[in-house]
Amino acid sequence: MKIYLAGPEVFAPDAIELGARKKSLCQHYGFEGIFPLDNEITPSSSPVETGLLISRENERLIDDSDLVIANLSPFRGASADVGTVYELGLARGLGKTIHGYSNDPELYQDRLLSLCGPSASQQAGTLCDRDGLKIEEFDLHDNLMIDGGIAAAGGHFVLAQKKAAIFSMTAFEEVLIRLSRSA
């Protein structure tokens, strides 16, 4: 079974090593890990064309995979990496099973409040950020569409027991363990 390994690891200085570690864990549990940087891209003279080529090739990798596991740890904000979320949505639209994990067990609404601050003038019974915009209060781990998509696809959303480094492999490995038990 081929698993596309979505997540912000591609931005890390040691991205290739992180991808290799994840692929090794996949192999240990009887799966084939596909890392976004597995693509062999010849950069174009245009950064725009190179970026679009990478996008097309990663979509092809997702299409060729059986399922997706995504690192949904907060990245550059209160929520998961936007590119990773796009990849989950694409996989869900293709009818693939999607799974996620986060190395931050804090609820989305609490992370939003920490990042954005509460509104000085809360609406009656509604939690709002400093700009007066409503904050989702569903006790979910990320935006309701992320948690909802994973649940609807029959996937697992595993949380670290306590906050861990963004690229920790513990929660990722727990998803693999659960998959190997159901395979």
Automatic annotation (TrEMBL):
Pfam families registered for this protein in UniProt: Nuc_deoxyrib_tr
Domain of life: Bacteria
SUPFAM superfamilies with a match to the protein in the record: N-(deoxy)ribosyltransferase-like
InterPro entries tied to this protein: 2'-dNMP_N-hydrolase, Nucleoside_deoxyribTrfase
Xref: PANTHER family: 2'-DEOXYNUCLEOSIDE 5'-PHOSPHATE N-HYDROLASE 1 (PTHR15364:SF0)
Protein's UniProt name: Nucleoside 2-deoxyribosyltransferase
